[in-house]
C-alpha cells in the first residue's frame, strides 16, 4: 500500500501511449520462439521417447505467461511532453520514470528493424551526455515517431540556444 503522491505518475501529466502493434509484434516473436520449442519437444516425443510429451508443458506454460506479461508491459509504456522536459515511463513490477530536459538532449534517433516495419512501428531513442538518462520509446507509429523526433529536436535546439 502506498501513501502520498505516486512518483511514477506526476500530477497534471497527460500520458501518450504506444501502439497496440507493439504487443502484436512481441507476441509474434514469442510465438515464433515458443512454437519452435513445442515443435522440438513433439519431434523428440515421436522419434525418441513418448516421455517428451511431458516436455510440451514447459513451453506451453511459458507461452501463456508471456502472452499476458507482454500485454501488461506494453500497456505500461507512456510518454509525455511537458514545457521543459520529456517524461518516459515503463514497467509493471519494476517501474521506471525517466525525465529528460530538452536542453540536455544531444540527438534523437528513430529506428525500425524489419520486424518493426512489418508491424508498422518504430522506436524513438533520446540520447544525452549521460547514458543513464537516455530514454527509449518503442512501438510508435512511424508518423508519430517522425513527428516526435522533429518536435524534440526543435525543442532541444531552442533550449540549447538559450544557454
UniProtKB/TrEMBL annotation:
Residue ranges annotated for the YdbS-like PH domain, each copy included: 75-152
Alphabetical keyword list: Membrane, Transmembrane, Transmembrane helix
Domain of life: Bacteria
Record carries keyword Metal-binding: no
Residues spanning the membrane: 29-54
Coiled coil: none
Record-given protein name: PH domain-containing protein
Amino acid at each position: 500500500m502506498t501513501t502520498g503522491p505516486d512518483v511514477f505518475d506526476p500530477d497534471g501529466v497527460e500520458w501518450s501511449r504506444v501502439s497496440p502493434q507493439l504487443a502484436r509484434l512481441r507476441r509474434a516473436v514469442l510465438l515464433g520462439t515458443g512454437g519452435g520449442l513445442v515443435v522440438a519437444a513433439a519431434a523428440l516425443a515421436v522419434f525418441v521417447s513418448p516421455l517428451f510429451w511431458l516436455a510440451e508443458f514447459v513451453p506451453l506454460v511459458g507461452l501463456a505467461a508471456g502472452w499476458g506479461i507482454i500485454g501488461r508491459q506494453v500497456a505500461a509504456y507512456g510518454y509525455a511532453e511537458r514545457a521543459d522536459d520529456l517524461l518516459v515511463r515503463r514497467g509493471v513490477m519494476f517501474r521506471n520514470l525517466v525525465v529528460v530536459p530538452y536542453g540536455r538532449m544531444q540527438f534523437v534517433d528513430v529506428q525500425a528493424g524489419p520486424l518493426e516495419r512489418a508491424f508498422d512501428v518504430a522506436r524513438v531513442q533520446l540520447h544525452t551526455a549521460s547514458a543513464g538518462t537516455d530514454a527509449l520509446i518503442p512501438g510508435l507509429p512511424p508518423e508519430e515517431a517522425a513527428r516526435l523526433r522533429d518536435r524534440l529536436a526543435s525543442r532541444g535546439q531552442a533550449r540549447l540556444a538559450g544557454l
